[in-house]
Structures are given as C-alpha cells and as structure tokens.
Amino acid sequence: MQHSNHSTLKLIISTLILATMLTGCFGAGGKKVITKYYLIDPVELEALNFISDKPLAIEIIDVHIPQYLERFQIATRIGGNRLKFSESNQWGENLRKNLMRTLSRNLSRLLSTQDIGTPQNRSLSSPDYRVQLYIEQFERDADHKVRLSARWQISGRESSEPLGVYSHEMVSPEIEDDDYDQMVTLMRQLYGELSSKIAESIVFEEHK
After folding, report:
1. 5 and 68 share a domain?
2. Number of domains forming the structure of the chain
3. Assuming Cys at both sites, which of 32, 59, 161, 201 could form a disulfide with 117, CB separation 3.0 to 4.6 Å?
4. The model's pTM
C-alpha cells in the first residue's frame, strides 16, 4: 500500500513539473511563445577623411547605460512614466557589453585603426585618446520612435581631465507597434550615427 502511495506521489510531482515547463513555452490561449534574441551589431561605415602621422590608439574606458536597460528583456516606454519589458524579445547578451564591443568596431572602421582598447580587450599601446560614454536613453518611446540620448567625454594621453565634453540626441522614424525587428534595426543605425559623432569629436581634438 505504501509503495502504491509513493508511486502516486511521484506521478503527481512529475505532472506538476511538466505543467510548469509547458506554461513557460506557451502563452495566453495556449499559443507557443518563441523568444527572439537580438544584438546591436556594427554598421558599415566609411573611414573619416583626416590626416594623422600614425594610426590613433583609442581606449574606451566604459559605456554607461541606465540600470533598467541592464535586463535581458528589451525595454520600451508605454507612457505615464511606465516601462514594458518583453519576455519574448530579449538581448542576446548584456546590452552594455554589446554596446562596448560594437562601439569599438565602429570606431575602428571610422578612424582606420585596429588599436582600440576596452576593459574586455585591453591594448598594449598608450592611448592617444580615451572615451567615456554615458547613454541616458536608448529605447522605443511611447510615441513609437526610438530615442538615443548620449553624452561623452574625450581625454588625452597626458591627463584624465577631459579635453572636451559632447552630447547628441537622435530620434528614429515611427515604428509599427511591437515590431522588434524594425526597432532593433533602427537602434543599430542610431548607434552607428552616434559612433560617427564620437569619431568626429576625436578627430576634432586631434586637429585642435
């Protein structure tokens, strides 16, 4: 009798575990939910036209993003100071690290140099310029447009004091509701534009 009760208990537990797993795979109405994963990839950028004695060495000190963007679920604004996090549309890795790596590759193309150091990939060279980027907003707003607001500072080889502090704001065209493919594509384009602005500020400091 005890053996029968034990088998029944095991069957109940197994059924509950299976039900929990299925709940994670199916959304409302029993439809299967497929999670999509995204990255902000580098864009095809033409090198800036400037004169330098040698390829510049650049160090990206850090890329700072708001804490609410540190989650894997992609954030959007839905009005009334409210955020929505999508369970079925997520970043493929930590967004800050993704943006750091992508900025490095974008700057490498724009400034025609392979000597770009980051906290994850340090350069052996002494940097000519250091970049610190602060992203203040980077998500789809309640008006269905992506907004990228950022500021950054450029410092030189000799001192950590900034040579210049810059800022830039960009807005995308309107996005169809819940079209995450289009949204991430526009985010990638805006981040490429921001990378160009950062590269231009480095060239400006170089030719001061």
Report:
1. no
2. 2
3. 59
4. 0.83
